[in-house]
Design a protein that fits this description.
This protein has helices at 3-16, 19-23, 32-43, 47-132, 138-145. It has 146 residues and is mainly α. It has a domain at 1-45. Helix 4 packs antiparallel against helix 5 (138-145).
Length: 146
């Protein structure tokens, strides 16, 4: 077999993960026992060694599958963490805005309270002037303007 064909078979085996096919012509073989017999013959390997090799390939495949599942789970966890992190940032910003708004409302309420207290204390004084006072006086005009 030419070197270029061997290299092409190796590259194909790497791409597909089917290492055995890169080295053994399995065309026309019906089942795994025929393939195993040909591999044993071609490489002068005991069939029990091939069984161990097959078991290790299965174990490696299972480990690779488990590794991929764990990698996928880790990626999903990272994505969820990123989403939650964004939500926490939004909530933090909303809370900061709420605190600012609350401070503004507190200041407005204090000013309103001060105005109501002033109005309440001056109401009795101005009420008497407006009821009994002379409409032509400065005192009456001030009471009217409050």
């Amino acid at each position: 077999m030419p070197v270029q064909d061997i290299l092409a078979n190796i590259q194909h085996a790497i791409d597909t993960g089917n290492i055995e096919a890169a080295f053994i012509d399995t065309e026309g073989l019906e089942d795994d026992s025929d393939r195993k017999a040909q591999v044993a013959k071609e490489y002068d390997i005991d069939e029990s060694t091939l069984d161990v090799y097959a078991e290790q390939l299965q174990t490696t495949g299972a480990l690779a599958e488990q590794h991929q599942k764990l990698a996928d789970a880790l990626e999903n966890t990272r994505d969820k963490y990123d989403e939650q992190s964004e939500e926490v940032k939004k909530a933090k910003n909303a809370l900061a805005n709420f605190e600012d708004e609350s401070e503004d409302i507190a200041v407005d309420l204090a000013q309103t309270q001060k105005g109501l207290e002033s109005l309440s204390s001056n109401m009795a004084k101005y009420s008497d002037i407006l009821k009994k006072g002379d409409k032509t006086t400065l005192e009456y005009a001030e009471a009217l303007c409050g």
